Amino acid sequence: MTERYININTENSALSAILHTPELNSGTESIDIGVLVLVGGPQYRVGSHRQFVKLSRALAAQGIISMRLDTSGMGDSGGKAKPFFQQSADIELAIEHFFMTCPQLKQLVLWGLCDAASAILIKLNRPDSRISGVVLLNPWVRQTQSHAQTMLKHYYLKRLISKEFWQKLLKGGLKLTDSLASLTQTLKASRAKPQTNNLPRPTTLHVTEQTYVSAMLSGWQSFGGKVLVITSGNDLTAQEFLELCAADQNWQQCLKHSAREHLPDANHTFASAIWRQRVEQCTIGFVKNTSDVIIDN
Question: Are residues 160 and 134 both part of a single domain?
Answer without folding.
Answer: no
